[in-house]
Design brief:
The chain has about 600 residues and is an alpha+beta fold. The chain has a nine-stranded mixed sheet. Strands 1-2-13-12-24-25-14 form a seven-stranded antiparallel sheet. Strands 4-5-11-6-10-9 form a six-stranded mixed barrel. Helix 15 packs antiparallel against helix 16. The longest helix is centred in the last third of the chain and has 15 residues, at about 480-495. The protein is globular and about 90 Å long. The model is unreliable at about 1-20 and about 190-195 (pLDDT under 50).
Length: about 600
């Protein structure tokens, strides 16, 4: 089967190339026959809760999410198109399964793929699924080719080689810290390919099979497993938190649930708050995600099928522990004895970890150092701007984005962030200039076109919004955000009074994907009003306002529809109610030629 050939691909070649620069390390518990060497070291920078590794494909800089839960390194179709890679189909039976369901798969070959200083002339990627906010996912065909150390608290992942270590403690950094040991569950065979990092944990006394998934922004338990434990969406204290998305077309319902205790090997966490989601994870029950990886250091010995873990401190599972204790009740020293960074990149990576753990004052101090050491690197100003925004410091954040754009005028991400700030500050001309620059810089298939389209709508440029929605929808046939994009295109067409049949089809498709969304009903109502279908428009406005009674535009537009239907009293009431909420709402109706 071709899928098997794709999975095994070039892993052995990368191992051979990386071993050329190996360095020996001493296990925590020395053993004469145990040898551990470092094959490859990959710096990791956190972007929110996503660990990002930088590389190159040919002359293009690329960024990958470090995803131990991905069976194979992947690109979205949009990323493959943006990189100019030829995409070839895989057999129809070859599917990729993620949080959002199944997605079709293809394969692309990247030439001169560089990672951690190692360059390979030819590497295959699975092409599948939704955009991730990065070029793609770095999966187990690379992370599982030997042993791997996940040291996200210090912004690093290391591919390791261990021989003759048996049951030796491979947490060589642990010192006096307790080390949790978990046995990994894996099928035999498969050559160098290691599908996932799976171990048994216990929640409220019940066994749970968990995937340790650095690409999951938060840990997540399946709804089916939660029910086995005795927790349902109706359990007291369980709170709906909306929808999650991932690989696949659909979002999934999610809740935050208080649980009694989770035990991971020898580590016990009391009263965790864990997300449960209506999702299938194959033969596993749980994703243990970035919240765990950011607060622990892990050595995954694929050779010995064992994982060694130490807690490094910080928030996880919805908790912010003030410390940690042994089973005997003794306090554990969690002092970080790693050396301080010595260069701008080191401060940038440490600051990103601190920001991910909501330690914003400390993060800003590190970003200050990064900027001071490398004042012409735009990326550090953008990092500091995001931390300042999280600290509710919009003016200093705007100053940082000004400097980032000055240094890198083609940085579409910085342009879009600054456009949002300028809009919030009432600077529409400045925001529009940033959007024009971002539009010129972005590839047609770029994931950021969805954000750009929404911002074009905010500055009343429906024609530009329509162009970006068209481009995004063409490049993202299986993205879980298609409902938002379809609604946006429907709304843009309705404003322009253009292709109303296509607009109605878009709104219908969006509502099929996400039934009952008030904004989608409002968009369809305007399409129907434009088409002269007044009763149908009133029905959609009524449905939208039942769900969101204070939507000023829906009230005002319903008043316009009521007036056309001869319902003068209702028209007057709706108009007055809308103007009381948003005094300038009538200006939009005038711009759209509705009155």
């Amino acid at each position: 089967m071709r899928g098997r050939r794709v999975r095994q691909g070039r892993a052995a070649a990368l191992a051979a190339a990386a071993l050329a620069g190996g360095a020996a390390m001493a296990p925590a518990a020395a053993h004469a026959d145990c040898q551990v060497s470092k094959m490859l070291e990959l710096p990791v920078t956190m972007a929110g809760r996503r660990p990002i590794v930088q590389g190159r494909i040919g002359a293009r800089e690329v960024s990958f999410i470090l995803d131990s839960g991905a069976f194979y390194s992947t690109l979205s179709r949009a990323s493959a198109a943006e990189l100019g890679l030829k995409v070839e189909p895989l057999p129809p039976s070859f599917k990729v399964k993620g949080v959002g369901g199944l997605a079709s798969a293809a394969v692309a070959v990247a030439r001169d793929f560089s990672l951690g200083g190692v360059t390979l002339p030819r590497v295959e990627f699975v092409v599948a699924g939704s955009d991730t906010g990065a070029t793609g996912l770095l999966g187990q065909n690379i992370l599982g080719l030997a042993d791997v150390e996940y040291d996200l608290p210090h912004g690093m992942v290391r591919l390791m080689r261990s021989t003759g270590c048996g049951k030796v403690n491979l947490a060589y950094w642990s010192g006096d810290k307790p080390v949790t040991t978990l046995r990994l569950e894996r099928p035999d065979g498969g050559g160098p390919f290691k599908p996932h990092t799976i171990a048994r944990v216990t929640i409220d006394g019940k066994p749970v099979r968990a995937v340790f998934d650095s690409g999951a922004e938060q840990s997540m338990l399946t709804l089916a497993a939660a029910r086995r434990i005795g927790v349902t969406p109706e359990t007291p204290g369980v709170v709906a938190i909306g929808q999650g998305i991932g690989v696949g077309r659909r979002g999934v319902a999610a809740w935050r649930a208080p649980l009694g205790k989770i035990e991971i090997g020898g580590e016990a966490i009391n009263r965790p708050q864990i997300v449960i989601a209506d999702v299938e994870l194959g033969d596993t029950d749980m994703l243990i995600g970035a919240d765990f990886f950011l607060t622990h250091r892990l050595f995954v010995s694929n050779a010995a099928r064992t994982m060694y873990v130490t807690y490094e401190g910080g928030p996880m599972f919805g908790l912010t522990p003030r410390g940690a204790r042994t089973a005997a009740g003794e306090a554990i020293d969690l002092t970080d004895r790693a050396g301080a960074p010595t260069d701008a990149e080191g401060f940038s990576r440490r600051g990103a970890v601190l920001a991910s753990n909501h330690k914003l004052a400390e993060a800003l101090a590190d970003f200050d150092r990064a900027v001071a050491l490398a004042p012409k690197e735009a990326r550090y100003y953008r990092q500091r701007a995001m931390a300042r925004l999280a600290e509710r410091q919009p003016l200093p954040a705007l100053a940082d984005l000004d400097r980032a754009v000055e240094l890198a005028p083609q940085d579409a991400d910085a342009r879009l962030q600054r456009a949002m700030l300028r809009l919030n500050g009432g600077d529409r001309p400045g925001a529009t200039a940033d959007l024009e620059a971002a539009d010129a810089a972005l590839a047609p298939s770029s994931a950021m076109r969805l954000t750009l389209a929404g911002l074009w709508d905010q500055v009343d440029r429906p024609g530009a919004a329509l162009t970006s929605y068209d481009a995004w929808l063409r490049a993202h046939p299986e993205d879980a955000r298609r409902a938002n994009a379809l609604n946006g295109r429907c709304w843009a067409r309705a404003q322009l009074n253009r292709d109303l049949d296509g607009a109605l089809a878009d709104c219908d498709a969006a509502l099929k994907l996400a039934p009952g969304r008030p904004a989608y009903l409002d968009s369809r109502a305007l399409v129907r009003l434009r088409r002269g279908e007044v009763d149908a428009a009133l029905a959609d406005y009524d449905a939208a306002l039942r769900l969101a009674p204070r939507m000023a535009w829906s009230l005002y537009a319903r008043g316009l529809a009521a007036a056309r239907a001869g319902r003068a009293a209702q028209a007057a009431r709706d108009r007055a109610a809308a103007l009381a909420i948003e005094p300038r709402v009538g200006e939009r109706a005038a711009r759209l030629g509705l009155e």
